[in-house]
Please model this.
Amino acid sequence: MLISVMATTKRTRFSRRVPDHVTDEIVHVLGDDDSFFGFNDLFELVFERLKERNAVSGGEEMLRLRAYEKLQNLVTRGMVEKQGKEYKGLARLPEAHSTFEVE
Model:
């Protein structure tokens, strides 16, 4: 019985960076207004903007889940402030936009 052991590398991440339309729209909505938004109000504005750009895929409920996950990620990264169940963009929020460039 012959067993051959070969070293293989396993890729666990997809390396190509594509624009994240959901995060971009969250950045636009929270960056345009300095007030707090409840998630449902924020999602409705993001959803309308995505529909205008024809960037909606996967259904509204799936998009709602993705938007919530991305919003919580922005809170964790310190770009969005959360008070209770309301959210407000902070000064670093534009860094989350897909076209942000470090100077």
